[in-house]
Amino acid sequence: VHILRVLDGLAAVGLYPNIQDVELVFQRYDINRDGNLRYSEFCQMFTPKNPDDAHMLNQRSSYYIHKPYYR
Prior knowledge:
mainly alpha
């Protein structure tokens, strides 16, 4: 995900951070410095730093319930 897509996505839900704040996030989490956040880099932002909390989060079952698609 490119920084401009992040800004567009946030704007779509009514959030308008300044670009400097979003650039700071990219500086911290864009590990390979390609200007995009890969899925793994994006997930890293939301994974707790405490190993016990991270383990508990990873063991929790999903709240997503698959609904069949009907035409």
